[in-house]
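Reopening this ticket.

The earlier resolution said the output was attached, but the attachment link was broken on my side. Pasting everything inline this time so it's all in one place.
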Amino acid sequence: MRCAACPFLGCCIARCLARKGRAAYIRVMTEPANPAFHSFHPDLTEANIARLVATFYGRAREDSLIGPVFNAQVKDWDHHIAQISDFWSSMVLRTGRYNGRPMRPHLMLPLKGEHFDRWLALFETTAREIFENDLAEAFIIRARRIADSFEMGIAATRGEIANPRHSV
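Inline output:
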């Protein structure tokens, strides 16, 4: 069984309880997985999701910290942007178009806390520019959970322990 805070790690309830404590686990499990994600929201469209992803990656590619990491790994940017657009579409519109394993490509990258911090800063700025406050915040909450999940997963493969820093 997976908890809402660890969608990519597939942690069991016991590990989640041990890592976060009972109160945090109950809060995470009882809050809506996608607050403010409603398919009838007029701004929540495939076009706006694609715009968010393309704008974000345009900025990320030029960033002095995370740009070199992305540019060294991504060979076909059009394919990557389409794939990540499918990922977000699946997350927020429940389209089911993305069926990959998002953690896997990140495990071998030389990522540290500052990379996740910068990724989130750029993503949050972009989300707030494209979407109204409630919808932007819903994307940001999900992005923070993803960042924590990736950061903890990467740490685990390195034999390290990492706590969530962004979604708590």
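Reporter confirms the inline version is readable. The CA atoms of residues 128 and 137 lie 8 Å apart. The chain has two domains: 1-31, 36-157.
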